[in-house]
Amino acid sequence: MKTLIFLLPVLTLLSVRVSAGPGCGPCVLDQCASLPAEGCSAGTVPDSCGCCVVCAAAEGELCGGRRAAARRCGPGLECVKSAEDKKSKLGVCVCKSNYEVCGTDGVTYKNGCALKKANLRAETEGQEPISVQNKGRCASAPLIVTPPGEVYNVSGSQVYLSCEAVGVPTPVLTWKKVLSGTKRMELLPGDRDNLAIQTRGGPEKHEVTGWVLISPLTKEVEGSYECHATNSKGEASAIGTIHLVESLDDIAVKKVTKEDEL
């Protein structure tokens, strides 16, 4: 019985030394460096020796290393090493999730790690904490990213106006022709044989692209056209114009005049 009591402290001491890892000396908490006053952007983790609390490596920062100098990634991150990095044992912290998330602050973050970083900053500054509201982008009203421009061409030619809008949920695009001399608009395509409407998703996620296609161009279809985007969060619109000119030479003249105005 006495022998067992004598061995117990020795076994406990040995277990501490083994868990500390190679290159680690005795754990003296008083010798641990202080954390920065502004906090740690990726949170804190125990050091590689399991003794001191240190700032974790953030997304895109170096991680790994040799023995006691090894640096660990923050929560939600993993240390990814290439074939070349394996020799130096260094890697880069990469987020384990690769999808966008919407925060309770109404901001869309590229991944959960970026949201966690923003939350730590908010808590450090005494602001409301930020958590995940939903996967994917935050709901937003439509925005016209590429409005329809101005087109000049001769009678009988084929012309088109294009428009791109983005929003969450993905907006629905409609086209209207501004009726000359009035504030009324005609919803397209209507019953015009020489006019067609086309719409497709993209090129980016939650983006939609639409076209007004006219062939042949006539005096009746000349004028202004409104691209209108709408979803459950709101709406947006932009206007483009189709001009009928007498000859192809007039197209170059109109373009030069337009550039001078800009």
UniProtKB/TrEMBL annotation:
<dbReference type="GO" id="GO:0005520">
    <property type="term" value="F:insulin-like growth factor binding"/>
</dbReference>
<feature type="signal peptide">
    <location>
        <begin position="1"/>
        <end position="20"/>
    </location>
</feature>
<dbReference type="Pfam" id="PF07648">
    <property type="entry name" value="Kazal_2"/>
</dbReference>
<feature type="domain" description="IGFBP N-terminal">
    <location>
        <begin position="20"/>
        <end position="96"/>
    </location>
</feature>
<dbReference type="InterPro" id="IPR003598">
    <property type="entry name" value="Ig_sub2"/>
</dbReference>
<keyword id="KW-0964">Secreted</keyword>
<dbReference type="InterPro" id="IPR011390">
    <property type="entry name" value="IGFBP_rP_mac25"/>
</dbReference>
<dbReference type="GO" id="GO:0009966">
    <property type="term" value="P:regulation of signal transduction"/>
</dbReference>
<dbReference type="GO" id="GO:0005615">
    <property type="term" value="C:extracellular space"/>
</dbReference>
<protein>
    <submittedName>
        <fullName>Insulin-like growth factor-binding protein 7</fullName>
    </submittedName>
</protein>
<dbReference type="InterPro" id="IPR009030">
    <property type="entry name" value="Growth_fac_rcpt_cys_sf"/>
</dbReference>
<keyword id="KW-0732">Signal</keyword>
<dbReference type="Pfam" id="PF13927">
    <property type="entry name" value="Ig_3"/>
</dbReference>
<keyword id="KW-0325">Glycoprotein</keyword>
<dbReference type="InterPro" id="IPR013783">
    <property type="entry name" value="Ig-like_fold"/>
</dbReference>
<keyword id="KW-1015">Disulfide bond</keyword>
<dbReference type="InterPro" id="IPR036058">
    <property type="entry name" value="Kazal_dom_sf"/>
</dbReference>
<dbReference type="InterPro" id="IPR003599">
    <property type="entry name" value="Ig_sub"/>
</dbReference>
<dbReference type="GO" id="GO:0001558">
    <property type="term" value="P:regulation of cell growth"/>
</dbReference>
<feature type="domain" description="Kazal-like">
    <location>
        <begin position="87"/>
        <end position="140"/>
    </location>
</feature>
<dbReference type="InterPro" id="IPR007110">
    <property type="entry name" value="Ig-like_dom"/>
</dbReference>
<dbReference type="InterPro" id="IPR002350">
    <property type="entry name" value="Kazal_dom"/>
</dbReference>
<dbReference type="InterPro" id="IPR036179">
    <property type="entry name" value="Ig-like_dom_sf"/>
</dbReference>
<feature type="domain" description="Ig-like">
    <location>
        <begin position="142"/>
        <end position="243"/>
    </location>
</feature>
<keyword id="KW-0393">Immunoglobulin domain</keyword>
<dbReference type="InterPro" id="IPR000867">
    <property type="entry name" value="IGFBP-like"/>
</dbReference>
<dbReference type="Pfam" id="PF00219">
    <property type="entry name" value="IGFBP"/>
</dbReference>
